[in-house]
Amino acid sequence: MWPSVMKTLLFLVLYLSCTSALYFHIGETEKKCFIEEIPDETMVVGKYKTQLFDKTINDYLPSSPGVGMHVEVRDPDDKVLLSKAYSSEGRFTFTSHTPGEHVICLYSNSTKWGLFAGGKLRVHLDIQVGEHAIDYSQIAAKDKLTELQLRVRQLLDQVEQIQKEQNYQRYREERFRQTSESTNQRVLWWSIAQTIILLVTGFWQMRHLKSFFEAKKLV
Amino acid sequence: MEGPWTAGLVVLTCYVAVSLAGELTFELADNDRQCFYEDVDAGVKCTLEYQVLAGGNYDVDVVVFEEAKPILKRVRSTSGEHKWTSESGTDVVICFLNKFSIVTSKKIWLRFEMEDPRVSPPPPGPPVPWLHEAATFMETSCVTAHENLKLVIDYQTHFRLREAQGRAFAESLNERVNYWSIAQTVILILVGIGQVVVLRSFFTENKKHQGI
Description:
Chain A: It is found in: Endoplasmic reticulum membrane; Membrane. Chain A: Belongs to the EMP24/GP25L family. Chain A: This is Transmembrane emp24 domain-containing protein 9. Chain A: The chain crosses the membrane at residues 187-206. The complex is a heterodimer. Chain A is α+β, with helices and mostly antiparallel strands. Chain A has a domain at 17-133: Jelly Rolls (Sandwich), CATH 2.60.120.380. Chain A has helices at residues 4-19, 136-143, 147-216, and strands spanning 23-27, 31-38, 43-54, 59-62, 69-74, 80-86, 89-95, 100-108, 120-129. In chain A, strands 1, 3, 4, 7 and 9 form a five-stranded antiparallel β-sheet that branches. Chain A has a four-stranded antiparallel β-sheet with strand order 2-8-5-6, with no helix packed on it. The longest helix of chain A is centred in the last third of the chain and has 70 residues, at 147-216. Chain B has two domains: 1-17 and 135-201; 18-118, Jelly Rolls. Chain B is 43% helix and 32% strand. Chain B is built from two helices and eight strands, in the order H-E-E-E-E-E-E-E-E-H. Chain B is elongated and about 100 Å long. The interface between A and B is large, with 63 and 61 residues.
């Protein structure tokens, strides 16, 4: 039903397609953070790979497993969702429980590599959210699904993701509207308050000066 | 059975491999720079999309290099999209600079997409070419729906970014209105009292002078 060759190949392809990612350099004690604004109950999968500069061949090589990365994920309420140390290559997964901005921070655990790499570590990072994070090759292998079933499964996941996003969109629109309304109210009340203060000040000035002049016998 | 399956696999493979995308959102501190790199083969079509989501005047300097040769240079840009085809087949360097800003940090979203035209895209015409014998209505529908949903997700992403930008602006406006109003009220009261004090001092001094 599902030829093994195809399964492995498909897995390979999906795997390869996911490993290609942007990379950046990270300093010894540097912390790099990335933000993901996601709805609730959404799965996020992050994959990273580190490389160290090798002077002998003048290129970057996969770093030894001793070089580790610390991954920390904070939810919108600044609570730690995930805080774990991984080796030179890793894959971290978390599911959001509150909608909003999730901050994913990466920093290295050791100072050993700083000596010979010029203090820079190359990090390949790929973050996949929601439906993109699902590994269909694994599902296909596990549940023995046919091509069509797999496609339908993917469609369902996509629709679910869109629905979650729409829901979150509604929530954010509400927040946006509240902010706008509050701005409107503030402008209104502040201007009324300022007008009143202006009138009161003017009135007080006149009365005060009048009594002052009268006391000084200037008028 | 093996034949069509394998053929289908090849098409699916190409299809998946054709475009690779990476999406990241990050915070760029004031007077800072952040560069991203990607190994790109020669002839690969690259697409870079970026947008400043929050901070200051929603602007950032963007520079893209390929083998020390600048491909794109935009100063104080809010959002943009740039497509080019890699010629050298070396690293592409995408840098975001916030050097002109002394106090405000920026939140930036970027998406980098690569497309290899040599890997043939799915042939046009009726979809699901890989199972041309078994291609039922169900299968074609699935593919069409999948493609359309991908578009929906893409539109949603852009809408989300726009909304995030608008919301950040609205929130900063709200705060600014508040602080400026407080400042103005304080100034108003101080000027009111100050005027009286100054005016009084004029007449008191005059009297003193007259007295002398």
